[in-house]
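User: Just a sanity check before I run the rest of the batch. Below are the C-alpha cells for the first item. I only need the designed sequence back.
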C-alpha cells in the first residue's frame, strides 16, 4: 500500500482505541508493519497482537482510570505521541421513542465524551510538529446532508457531534501544530454494520477501510486540517 513508504516514522508513537475487532484491529496490524513506530492498541478486552512494536492496553476509555492507564502506558514508552486515532464506538439500534436515557448516555459517552476527555488527557504528551494528527472516526450517518436511517438517532447524532468537535479542536490546536480531522466512514463489513443493517453486504472489508485510515492518519495532516471527510463507496 502507498502509505507504507511515506512519512518518516522513526520514534513515532500512535494510539488507537477500539482495537479488539473490526476496523480498529485491522488498523493496528497494518500500522505495526512499520517497525520504526510503536502502537498503543487500546481496548476494553485483552487483545494480543503478534508484532513486537504493538503494546496492548486493556482500558475503558469511558473511565478516568482507563484514560489514566493509557496516559501512563504512553509515558512508559519514553516517546512523544504523534498520532491519536479515536476509533472506539458504540451503536444502539432502537426506535427513538423507545431509546432509554441510559442507552443515550452510553452512546454519547463512548462516541463523544470519551474521545474529548482522552484527547485532553493525552495532549501534554503530543509532539508539536507537522506529523502530529488526531483522527476522529465519524460516520456517514453523522455527515450533514447524508441519508439518515431509522433506529440510529443516538449513534448518528453522536457522530455529528464528534465531527463538530473535530472542527473546533483543529482551530484550538493549530497553534500547537497539531492537526485534527474526522473521517465520516461509509459501509465496511464489520460487526457494527451487521448490527445496524442485518444481511447487508458492504463493498469494503474492515481491512480495506483500515488501509485508508492508516494512510490518512500518517499523511492526511499534510493536506488538510479541521475537515470532516466522507469516506464512502456506498451507504446502505
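Assistant: Here's the designed sequence for the first item:
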Amino acid at each position: 500500500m502507498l502509505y507504507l513508504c511515506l512519512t518518516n516514522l522513526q520514534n513515532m508513537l500512535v494510539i488507537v482505541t477500539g482495537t479488539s475487532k473490526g476496523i480498529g484491529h485491522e488498523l493496528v496490524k497494518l500500522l505495526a508493519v512499520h517497525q520504526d513506530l510503536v502502537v498503543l492498541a487500546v481496548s476494553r478486552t485483552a487483545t494480543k497482537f503478534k508484532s513486537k512494536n504493538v503494546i496492548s492496553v486493556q482500558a475503558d476509555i469511558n473511565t478516568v482510570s482507563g484514560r489514566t492507564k493509557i496516559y501512563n502506558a504512553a509515558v512508559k514508552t519514553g516517546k512523544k505521541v504523534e498520532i491519536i486515532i479515536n476509533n472506539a464506538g458504540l451503536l444502539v439500534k432502537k426506535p427513538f421513542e423507545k431509546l432509554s436515557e441510559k442507552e443515550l448516555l452510553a452512546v454519547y459517552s463512548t462516541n463523544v465524551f470519551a474521545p474529548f476527555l482522552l484527547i485532553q488527557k493525552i495532549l501534554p504528551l503530543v509532539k508539536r510538529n507537522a506529523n502530529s494528527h488526531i483522527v476522529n472516526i465519524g460516520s456517514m450517518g453523522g455527515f450533514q446532508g447524508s441519508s439518515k436511517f431509522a433506529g440510529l438517532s443516538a449513534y448518528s447524532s453522536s457522530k455529528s457531534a464528534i465531527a463538530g468537535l473535530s472542527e473546533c479542536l483543529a482551530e484550538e490546536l493549530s497553534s500547537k501544530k497539531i492537526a485534527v480531522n474526522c473521517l465520516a466512514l461509509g459501509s465496511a463489513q464489520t460487526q457494527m454494520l451487521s448490527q445496524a443493517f442485518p444481511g447487508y453486504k458492504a463493498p469494503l472489508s474492515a481491512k480495506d477501510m483500515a488501509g485508508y485510515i492508516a494512510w490518512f492518519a500518517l499523511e492526511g495532516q499534510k493536506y488538510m486540517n479541521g475537515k470532516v471527510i466522507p469516506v464512502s463507496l456506498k451507504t446502505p
